[in-house]
Amino acid sequence: MHIKLDIKIFAFALFFLLTNQFNTYILLMLFAIMHEIGHILSGLLLGLKVQKLEILPIGFAVSFKLDTVDFNKKIFKANLLTVKKLIIAISGPLVNLIFIIFFLLLGKEKIFNIEAEMLIYINILIFLFNMIIIYPLDRRKNLKKHFIYLFR
């Protein structure tokens, strides 16, 4: 596995430090890595190998090695690789959704002296940000098309 660190992460950290919001940035990055762990675990369970993990100023990104055998196996109306990509794509936001529900059930409790509302807010941001398909950030360009075709 190749790990790539974007040097701009230090500029972002400095900005959040100077604006007295460094704790928020740390929490954002912590839940972003939990989000990526969701992608990684589902990819590993589906038999894929992690090729690259990128540490970006606004989160993390993971890439998998694709197995050419999956291109040819048909399942439903798509190939197996498309189904695997769909499961991997959904698993990251699902992790954030689980955290949102967990922190909502806790109510007004503090966790490690952090308000539950802040933890809910950060996970909602990550969840919503990942539901929007934005080309440079989103590697699932054709996933929406495949999803609609798969379940039509």
Descriptive account of the structure:
With 152 residues, the protein is of the alpha+beta class. The protein has one domain (2-150). The chain has helices at 8-18, 22-45, 69-72, 80-106, 116-131, 143-150, and strands at 2-5, 49-56, 59-65, 74-75, 78-79, 110-111, 114-115. The strands form three sheets. It has a three-stranded mixed β-sheet, covered by helices on one side. A hairpin with a 2-residue loop joins β2 (49-56) and β3. It is globular, with a radius of gyration of 17 Å.
Q: What gap, in angstroms, lies between the N and C termini?
A: 36 Å
Please list the strands of the largest sheet in the order they lie side by side: 1-2-3
Average pLDDT number: 82
Helix content: 55-70%
Structural class: alpha+beta
- Uncertain residue segments: 141-152
Beta-strand portion reads 15-25%
Count of alpha and pi helical runs = 6
SSE series: EHHEEHEEHEEHH
Indicate the radius of gyration in whole angstroms: 17 Å
Taken together, the total number of domains comes to 1
